[in-house]
Amino acid sequence: MMELKEYFPMWEKLTSAQQARLLAASDKRHFERGQIVHNGLTDCTGLFLIRSGQLRAYTISEEGREITMYRLFERDICLFSASCIMRSIQFDIVIEAEKDTEAWLIPAETYKGVMEESAPLANYTNEIMASRFSDVMWLIDQIMWKSVDRRLANFLLEESALENTSRLNITHEVIGNHLGTAREVVTRMLRYFQNEGMVKLSRGTVELTDMDKLRNWNNK
User: Fold this and answer.
1) How does pLDDT run across 187-204, given as a tens digit for each residue?
2) Which has the higher per-residue pLDDT, 217 or 164?
3) Residues 46 and 111: beta-carbon distance below 8 Å
4) CB of 73 within 8 A of CB of 54?
5) So what's the pLDDT on residue 41?
6) Of 7, 37, 121, 134, which alpha carbon lies 20 to 30 A from 127's?
7) Which pLDDT belongs to residue 31?
8) Which bin fits 46, alpha (ψ -120 to 50), beta or left (φ > 0)?
9) Is 71 within 8 Å of 57 (Cβ atoms)?
10) What is the pTM (predicted TM-score) of this model?
């Protein structure tokens, strides 16, 4: 697994004292699948650096509906779990372990202290923040301009590539949570996809049977 310094391309631009502070404060954490890692604006645990596993960042509507904002994988840095270090950020998201996950945790105050001293670290943090906002803007664009059926086709293709299998062990409710739509809507669309020969449905499983047709559907 990666060492702490490998997450920061500007590590050598930090002073030895700053490096030592980050190393001394870092703590290894383990999260079980389904465990909530970060829970909204009131939770400012710190910066998570993903060593292995997978996290999901999502927001919840007033009606209680979830929608996935982005996912985090090995080598990624989870910045919104330390959003209190950025005064202008008011981003109420929940972060959940989608798989058993190992991570480094750097407490928010320690990271903020070093960031305020180091322009290279501050610049790198801003780059991460900009990248995440880019992900969010892409999602908004998808929701505004892309129909649910195309978003569903895209999600199934991405999930298949991520898990390296055409047989997805996933429920309609979980898919709905990722897309920010009701389970009933997902079920109707999946049944339609099945009638079109693109998927095969069974309890808790969606098998992709015609990838090319799904890709064409996604790009139509």
Assistant:
1) 999 999 999 999 999 999
2) 164
3) yes
4) yes
5) 63
6) 37
7) 96
8) left
9) yes
10) 0.79
Specify the length of the chain in residues. 220
Residue whose token pair is 């923040």: 129
Cα-based distances in Å from 50 to 28, 30, 114, 142: 10, 10, 20, 27
- CA angle 183–64–140, rounded 5-degree value: 80
Cβ-contact 218, 208 below 8 angstroms:
no
Tokens for 101, please give them.
């996950």
Residue 106, both tokens: 């750097």
pLDDT tens column, 122-139 = 999 989 988 888 888 888
CA angle 66/72/78 to nearest 5° reads: 95
First to last CA, the chain: 41
**Measured between alpha carbons, how far is 27 from 44 in angstroms, rounded to an integer?**
15
- Please give the full DSSP string across 142-187, using - where no structure is assigned: HHHHS-HHHHHHHHHHHHHHHHT-SEE---HHHHHHHHTS-HHHHH
Structure tokens at 3: 């060492």
Two tokens at 13? Answer: 């631009």
